[in-house]
Amino acid sequence: MDRYKAFLNYNLMPAGLIKFISGAARSKGNTLAFVLIFMTILSFLMLPIINIFNYSSMTATKSKNALIALNLALQTIEEIKATPYDEVMSMLPSDRKIFEGEWISGDNGKIDYPAYYKLFSKHIEVKADKDLAVPNEKIKRVVVSVYWDELNDERRRIAHNIKLATCISSEF
Q1: Domain for residue 42, yes or no?
Q2: Three-state DSSP class for 155?
Q3: Can you tell me the distance from the alpha carbon of 14 to that of 45, in angstroms, rounded to the nearest whole number?
Q4: Which candidate, 123, 83, 117, 112, places its Cα nearest to that of 99?
Q5: Is residue 53 situated within a structural domain?
Q6: Please, which residues have CB within 8 angstroms of residue 31's CB and are 6 or more apart in sequence?
Q7: How far is the C-alpha of 95 from the C-alpha of 168, rounded, in Å?
Q8: 169 by DSSP, 3-state: which?
Q9: Other CB atoms within 10 Å distance of the CB of residue 65
Q10: How would you write 111-151 as a 3-class SS string?
Q11: For the chain, what percent of residues have pLDDT higher than 70?
Q12: Which helix (H) or strand (E) holds 106?
């Protein structure tokens, strides 16, 4: 029977593993303490790395939201430029239109805004250029503001906005 155990130990287990197991048996419990110390040190070393991933994820979300808001503002300005001059009007300050519903329509059907875009709202302000140094009643100044909220590190909401302005004319 001893020959059989020796055969199994020799053929099935690598020599380094046999030495490790036999050495661990001689250490009389020191291995558990060493493993606990090692795991504690490793956990302290992993905390900064985990924080880096958290910070980079939040930064990526902020960049994505700012890019979406900028594109929505540009799209709104293009829609206003395609509107007849006399129909371009301001929204009330309390009115903010959420980006939902139909986005693009054409011969092949329609495409709705993605659900994520409901986080964004817009406000349009139109001013006649009478307030400028050289008044011109044929030009309107249009300011499009896009608003959204984000959560910061402490999970508090922070309001953000992007404003884009353009001028439209009654004459081409």
Answers
A1: no
A2: coil
A3: 32
A4: 117
A5: no
A6: 24
A7: 22
A8: strand
A9: 19
A10: EECCHHHHHCEEEEEEEEECCCCCCEEEEEEEEEEEEEEEE
A11: 75
A12: strand 102-106
Query: Alpha-carbon Rg of the chain, whole angstroms?
Result: 33
In a domain, 55, yes or no: no
Residue 118 lies in a domain: yes
Total domains in the fold of the chain: 1
Residue-wise pLDDT tens digits, 154-168: 777 888 999 999 888
Name every residue whose Cβ is closer than 8 Å to that of residue 171 and which is 6 or more positions away in sequence: 138
Closest CA to 35 of 158, 43, 9: 43
Q: What is the pLDDT of residues 37-64, one digit of tens each?
A: 999 999 988 988 888 988 898 889 889 9
d(CA 69, CA 61): 12
Whether the model clears a pTM of 0.70, i.e. scores above it, the answer is no
Q: Which domain holds residue 91?
A: 61-169
- For 112, other C-beta atoms within 10 Å of its C-beta total 12
